[in-house]
Amino acid sequence: MSKHLIAISFIILGWMPQAYAYIDPVTGSVIIQSIVAAVAVVLVAMRRLRERIVGLFRKKTENEDDQRDSAQP
């Protein structure tokens, strides 16, 4: 459903005449900053997810168990 909606949106936008619009430098830099931030968020989220998945399969050592026991009150 969403793929069809996106395709229809691109088709409709393709039929529109040229807008002759101007994007000032501040707006352009905000757009670029938003794209870079979104990429950074996705990369950090993927890294944390990978660490959690690897942590499920990692063998616990005696040292880790001792640290967890001493950290709990």
Topology order in helix (H) and strand (E) letters: HHH
Strand composition percent: under 5%
Oligomer: single chain
Main beta sheet = none
How many individual β-strands?
0
Distance between the termini: 52 Å
Topology overview:
Elements: H1 2-15, H2 25-57, H3 62-71
Structure write-up:
There is one protein chain. The chain has a domain at 22-58. It has helices spanning 2-15, 25-57, 62-71. The radius of gyration is 24 Å and the shape is elongated. It starts with a helix and ends with a helix. The longest helix has 33 residues, at 25-57. The protein has 3 helices and no strands. It is 78% helix and 0% strand. It is mainly alpha-helical and 73 residues long. The model has no long low-confidence stretch (mean pLDDT 83).
Task: Give a summary of the structure in a few sentences.
The protein has 73 residues and is an all-alpha fold. The chain has helices at 2-15, 25-57, 62-71. The mean pLDDT is 83.
Notable traits:
single chain, 73 residues, 3 helices, elongated, 78% helix, 0% strand, mainly alpha
